[in-house]
Hints:
Distance between the termini of chain A: 24 Å
Helix content of chain B: 55-70%
Shape of chain B: elongated
Number of strands of chain A: 31
Structural class of chain A: mainly beta
Oligomer: heterodimer
Strand order of the largest sheet of chain A: 2-1-5-6-7
Shape of chain A: elongated
Number of helices of chain B: 5
Low-confidence stretches of chain A: 1-32
Distance between the termini of chain B: 111 Å
Amino acid sequence: MRFSTVCRALAALLLATPLAAQDTTGRGVRIGLSYEPGSKPGVVVLPVTGARGDSVRGILQRDLDYGDRVNAIVLDPVSARDASRATGPNWPLLARLGAAAAVQVTPTAAGLHVAVYNVATKQTALVKDYPTPATEGSRAWRAVVHGISDDLEAAFTGIRGIARTRVLFERGKRIWVVDSDGEGATPLTEVGTPVSPAWHPNGQTITYSTYLPAGISVLDLGSGRSRTLAKGSGVYISPVFTPDGGSVVYAHGADEGVDLYISAASGGGGRRLSVGRGSDNVSPSFSPDGRRVAFMSGRAGHPEIYTMDADGTNVDLLTPLEFGENAYRASPDWSPDGRLVAFQSQMAGTFQILTINLRDRSLKQLTSDGRNEDPSWAPDGRHLTFVSNRTGSKQLWVLDIESGRTRQLTRGAAVRLPAWSPRLSND
Amino acid sequence: MTRRTALLFLSLFSIVGLEACRRKVVAAPAPLAATDSRAADSLDALRSSQRADSLAAAEAAARAAAGDATKAQAELSAVLSQKVYFDYDRDVLRDDARAALDAKVPVLLANPGVTLVISGHTDERGTAEYNLALGQRRAAQVKRYLAGKGVPDERLNSQSLGDAQPAVDGSDDTAYQQNRRAEFQPQGARALVRPRS
């Protein structure tokens, strides 16, 4: 039985209001487990046997915690010892700990066997086997464990997690990638002048621009092969794939301002989309349906966020126009659910992250500590990564826009220009 | 005269005679020969000295000329390389920028083999992507100005480095001003010709 089928069976068994399982807005998650609406269901990951047992359990607990939708209950050593019995979970103990569910992972010859228990009903809610690569602890092995976390979160909340995602960024004149939990930071390009990395919707290919020489490159992560999509005099900036993956939109200009162009992802000449009349038009971000594009333009005399149709028509100022030299709105990123555009705005001499609601144009400030810029949405539409100097060096941070909780994603040399991947199916 | 007296006279005569002979030998041509050698040495030394002086003077003159040429090259090169600066988030050429560009024009026109790479830079305050565009706009503005003064367009290449290569580190107005600039790299100039004034 496929896992998704099991999930549906679980939902049918457990959901008090099945349709509400997909609705987490304002009312909290409701999947029938024993917890109060609006609160997060308590989940215990039971001790895992085997050489990598502690790693598996640690990754699952951390992923569930970072997902911000469940309460990952961490057991003290005594509770951990007593939580499992030969006959099964210690139901009274789990109930006392406030757990709505317990997860049991057992190593097998082929990988990992996962069982989820409903503490209230004392029944097994779902089971699934996950084949793992031979090299335990490798990136691919960790990806499988992250995938388990995402399946669990989907089972508990109706919304798939973001543990099996990665974030691109620029550091030290190279493009890097890091797992969503901050592990496995790895450079993807040689030292050069790469900037503005962006993901293909398939999660297997990226694009980025360079300024010396000026051009757009496409890199296949599987083979490591890269190719030049565009090059020439002037500048090439901020390439992004269209949501269907078939084209790349980027900013280009030489002597008469910088405008947005579109090229087939397979190559070929660019067609101009924006008409900036000598102004700068950069940082495109597509709506999820691919019909509109948010971008930053200096056409009003200072940077503001605009939207336009995908063919360049029907340009509309999105952010409320402010007069004066200090107005500076930039780096738009359209949320995966289509409701919001995140961007950075100059406030009191520094940058902060805001969102603007596309329905009523209401603004919401998300940051206030230090300089914060370059927002990029996670595929769940609830988390954002951004660059912040709040601890001194510019590092990536992750923000849960519902709870306001933040965590630091990268450490080390300064970084910039993050791009959060779509959900990744395989590595 | 006694025999003893005769011997005395004979001895005195011998002594006087011998002394006379000694004087003749010592006084012979030897003093004349020494005078000639010293004169020749003096002439050689003089000629050598004059030659050395002449060489030194020539070398000094050559050095001076070379120094002048080097200095002139350095001055011309400095004119071509002189940076121009911009206001915040602007690509408009200020008066000081126009003056610096006006000084480049005759040098460029007098040296048709020289091309100029114009690099636009910004301070750190904007976004990386906007700053790349702004740097390009500044470089393009400079290129347009020089082309308008008669410098062939194909000898002017503009590029942008955005905020990637600040001239100075720092996050204050002084650093920002020094970083909002266009830089110039003359290429193809082995020996710059001074423009006729």
